[in-house]
Amino acid sequence: MSKIVINWQPGVTKINNMILEDIEALDQKGFYLLMGGLPYKSKITYERIKPIYLGASFNQSIRDDLLGYPDKNECVKQFMDAYYKIDLLFVCGILEQPTAKEIRSNNIQKTKLKLIKQIHLSCNELPTKANNNLEIEHTGMYNPLNKNRERI
To answer: Closest by alpha carbon to 8, among 27, 33, 29, 44?
Structure first.
């Protein structure tokens, strides 16, 4: 059985602020989770965070792959239009084991499909089957991946 370890970076970031943020993980290769979040009264934190799309960026940096959202993906754009009071947020997941340099491209796709099946994201096509020979371990800030999260 193959084991993949993904370290989800702390904190969620508003996608509009991404270019200004000095987040080291943005300049690496890995996974990213797009989420809709309702700004809390302070407008610094968010409540009712809903994961909507999981992406994998292994040919370029996560920062480069995130450029153009929400318009880059029609489903994400429609979600944001429907819930106009929410902000589009993201969190980065960096591979710890194997590293981005070591992982084979077919394992990237298998990992992405298994994550999509586990999380039930509205803007990713639900795979018909996921690889049961793949174990995914999450480290870091992975609360948005939990099934018992609050719904928007």
So the answer is: 33
